[in-house]
């Protein structure tokens, strides 16, 4: 049974959010190709993970019994998110572009699951080793402008940030689905959506 973890970060509701609509289209397509697939939907905009603070950073460095109540609570929240990540075979990550990056709720999720010694480690030479391996990730983005396959050099810090952050954890089998032109006239918006929709069909053939 294939296990899918879907993360939604658009502040806009499902009726209008393009990244949510495309993510749902992708999940349906994956589930069709893998009958019986299990899906966990995590709406980060509706229930934002806490910002990473001193309690988590100190707590993860201590043995369990030495943690304060605040540290233990912060570690438990992070651990629950990491467990979901471990559980999943496939990640569908909605990362729409807001002010050149993705919504900050997705950043807090990344911060909570990026724990040294648990999801990645550095060796003595400073090389990073991801500890979350064997997963496929789809990053679903939607943006007002035209970014095509550009990255941070063109002001696209949304999907490129997710790509780099997940690579640190060992998730390198990553595919981007992008709808451009969503701030333009209706025809351009439709064309941008169709490009993304076709990409989904290519990535997950029916
Ligand atoms: C506050 C705000 C900031 C935005 N910033 C950008 C941006 O930096 N670049 C861009 O191309 N589009 C930008 N957009 C357009 C969104 O990327 C576009 O509406 C996209 O569809 C949002 O994803 P969603 O529909 O899943 O919410 C912005 C929209 C809003 C409301």
From TrEMBL:
User: Which reaction does this enzyme catalyse, per its entry?
Assistant: N,N-dimethyl-1,4-phenylenediamine + anthranilate + 2 NAD(+) = 2-(4-dimethylaminophenyl)diazenylbenzoate + 2 NADH + 2 H(+); 2 a quinone + NADH + H(+) = 2 a 1,4-benzosemiquinone + NAD(+)
* KW Flavoprotein (keyword) present: yes
Q: Which residues form the Flavodoxin-like fold domain?
A: 3-202
Where, in this chain's numbering, is FMN bound? 10, 17-19, 97-100, 142-145
**What is this enzyme's EC?**
1.6.5.-, 1.7.1.17
Molecular functions (GO terms): electron transfer activity; FMN binding; oxidoreductase activity, acting on NAD(P)H as acceptor; oxidoreductase activity, acting on NAD(P)H, quinone or similar compound as acceptor
Say if the entry is tagged with keyword Metal-binding.
no
Question: Matching PANTHER family, A to Z?
Answer: FMN-DEPENDENT NADH-AZOREDUCTASE 1, FMN-DEPENDENT NADH:QUINONE OXIDOREDUCTASE
Q: What does this protein do?
A: Also exhibits azoreductase activity. Catalyzes the reductive cleavage of the azo bond in aromatic azo compounds to the corresponding amines. Quinone reductase that provides resistance to thiol-specific stress caused by electrophilic quinones.
State how it assembles. Answer: Homodimer.
Question: Which named protein is this?
Answer: FMN dependent NADH:quinone oxidoreductase
Organism the protein comes from? Sphingomonas palmae
